[in-house]
């Protein structure tokens, strides 16, 4: 059985994911070998295959771990006892901040998702759809209550916001003129202004 941690206590799966993320970001998914990943993580191929069935599984997990965090946080915003506009604004800003905090992961995924197996791609699309549907439900709730305009369909509002989020990896740079929270606040405000009755 492979060791689960190294000398500093970092679990092997986390080390493998960190190494894969760095290498995929630097040289691309298709130009990164399994051997390079295990060498960078300081483990054997046996250890990799103990935790991940393939390089494809690593790519899937790079994105899935971010999406899990975002889903948990969205659920917390959606379930909070607060006015719908506060909950939507919080969720809209949060997805921007968590995407920027995991920019390599998001960038790798959108550049490389076509490398996933059809089964994994279907799974990721289902996970993203669940996220988008929960987000859309907040928009629809506000529209039903008359807090948000119904002039634009909720689906289009959601696509508009997530188009901005998915585009972050192409232009956002750490150390630029805006902090992650400032970008998040601006994009959330744009969304809320678009929904104003």
Average of pLDDT? 91
Task: Give the helix tally.
Answer: 9
Number of strands: 0
Shape: elongated
> Helical residue percent?
over 70%
How would you characterize the largest beta sheet? none
Strand percent estimate:
under 5%
Distance, first to last CA? 60 Å
**Succession of helices and strands:** HHHHHHHHH
Cα-based radius of gyration, to the nearest Å: 19 Å
Structural class: mainly alpha
Poorly predicted ranges: none
Secondary structure blueprint with pairings:
Elements (H helix, E strand, L loop, with lengths): L11 H16 L6 H8 L3 H7 L3 H25 L4 H18 L1 H10 L5 H27 L9 H18 L8 H16 L2
Helix pairs in contact: 1-2, 1-4, 1-6, 4-5, 4-6, 4-7, 5-6, 5-7, 5-8, 5-9, 6-8, 7-8, 8-9
InterPro entries: DNA-bd_HTH_TetR-type_CS (IPR023772), Homeodomain-like_sf (IPR009057), HTH-type_TetR-like_transc_reg (IPR050109), HTH_TetR (IPR001647), KstR2_TetR_C (IPR041490), Tet_transcr_reg_TetR-rel_C_sf (IPR036271)
Protein name: TetR/AcrR family transcriptional regulator
Organism: Streptomyces lutosisoli
Which descriptors apply to this entry?
mainly alpha
Can you characterise this structure?
This is TetR/AcrR family transcriptional regulator. Pfam families: TetR_C_24, TetR_N. Keywords: DNA-binding, Repressor, Transcription, Transcription regulation. InterPro entries: DNA-bd_HTH_TetR-type_CS, Homeodomain-like_sf, HTH-type_TetR-like_transc_reg, HTH_TetR, KstR2_TetR_C, Tet_transcr_reg_TetR-rel_C_sf. It comes from Streptomyces lutosisoli. This protein is mainly α and about 200 residues long. Helices cover about 75% and strands about 0% of the residues. α1 (about 10-25) crosses α4 and α5 runs parallel beside α8 (about 155-170). The termini are far apart. The mean pLDDT is about 90.
